[in-house]
Design a protein that fits this description.
There is one protein chain. 40% of the residues lie in helices and 17% in strands. The chain has a six-stranded mixed β-sheet with strand order 2-1-3-10-4-11, sandwiched between helices. The chain has a five-stranded mixed β-sheet with strand order 7-6-8-5-9, sandwiched between helices. The protein has 14 helices and eleven strands. Strand 6 (135-138), helix 6 and strand 7 form a beta-alpha-beta unit. The protein is of the alpha/beta class and 346 residues long.
Length: 346
């Protein structure tokens, strides 16, 4: 998410460079898929690690990129460097609005939950009013937890420090959040797994709330699958092939959680050079629900919150073109599974 100072620029139409792929002489293309190495992206990590995504896309070539936060990933997609990606709803919304609806489409969900607000016990944070004068970390400005935190602050009648208030919202890399928390330099963090559990087990944090408790039925979109619009228009067959692998990987993660945890941890180690301790992995996995449902209704709420904060321009964002769920529903019908309805429910 861009700073309020840059919102004017965010409303200038962005001409995406199209696809990062160029056809080879045999007609095949390189499909660039992006994700984040965390547990809310477990489906992506499994689909890449066990080879099912590469197999599904053949004879096309799979290129995988990993990013540390969603807004950074969206900028890469807007620059034409990413074709398909796993990313949080708030960065996806920002990219959609920034490009005036032209750059991307949501083609599936990937996860729900996996987001907790943890605090230092000594900070005395028990109600939103207690955030006054506190320093709270989020993974990156404009990320899903960052927007949620700012809206919580606003609802408490407080203001963030960049608006002249006393609540310091401090975006930083997840690994840095753990370090500064251990040093007592922040009072809390709203972030995604596995970092929530690591903060609890390695830094003595306590859970103020699991975000699932703040949503009807405990379900809200944490990770989406998005596609660059030009890529979807040029390669609908590749998108459907991708979604077949995505649905199968989701089923694997849901049906075989222990095996999925091992695969995901090995992939996290490959990307970050450090595997998660078994107790972190097992606990954090229980905080995440995996689904191909994009949970459309919850994203509408998030968009409204971002708009009220002034991050999505002056007009209420029109999300009617944000979703392209026909390819997903085609795949679900092929597999004898219920399609996703207009409201994102099944």
């Amino acid at each position: 998410m861009l700073l309020r100072l840059l919102l004017v620029l965010s409303l200038v139409p962005v001409v995406a460079c199209g696809s990062s792929s160029a056809p080879a002489s045999d007609g095949s293309v390189t499909v660039t898929v992006a994700h984040l190495p965390n547990l809310t992206n477990a489906t992506a990590l499994v689909a890449v690690a066990d080879g099912r995504l590469r197999t599904a896309l053949a004879p096309h070539t799979l290129d995988v990129k990993s990013f540390s936060a969603g807004p950074q990933l969206i900028e890469a997609l807007l620059a034409g460097e990413v074709d398909i990606a796993y990313v949080g709803p708030s960065p996806a919304l920002n990219g959609f609005v920034k490009s005036r609806g032209a750059a991307l489409r949501v083609i599936a969900g990937a996860s729900s939950g996996g987001s907790l607000f943890v605090v230092r016990p000594e900070a005395g944070i028990r109600t939103p009013a207690d955030l006054a004068g506190k320093r709270i970390a989020t993974p990156q400005r404009g990320g899903t937890q960052d927007i949620a935190l700012r809206f919580l602050v606003k609802g408490a009648g407080l203001r963030t420090s960049d608006e002249g208030g006393t609540v310091a919202v401090v975006p930083m890399q997840p690994a840095d959040i753990l370090t500064v928390f251990q040093r007592g330099q922040i009072d809390g963090a709203w972030t995604a797994e596995p970092w929530c559990t690591r903060l609890i087990q390695e830094a003595g944090a306590t859970v103020w709330f699991d975000e699932r408790t703040r949503w009807p039925e405990g379900r809200f979109a944490t990770t989406h699958v998005i596609v660059a619009t030009p890529f979807l228009e040029r390669h609908p067959d590749i998108v459907r092939a991708f979604l077949r692998a995505h649905v199968e990987a989701t089923q694997f993660v849901v049906d075989h959680p222990a095996d999925a945890q091992r695969v995901v941890n090995a992939e996290i180690k490959r990307i970050t050079t450090a595997a998660l301790p078994a107790r972190v992995l097992e606990t954090a996995f229980r905080h995440v629900d995996f689904t191909w449902d994009p949970l459309v209704d919850t994203v509408a709420v998030m968009a409204d919150h971002a708009h009220q904060l002034g991050f999505l321009g002056d007009a209420t964002p029109d999300l009617r073109q944000l979703y392209a769920l026909d390819p997903l529903n085609d795949v679900l019908r092929e597999k004898g599974l219920p399609p996703i309805g207009a409201g994102g429910t099944r």
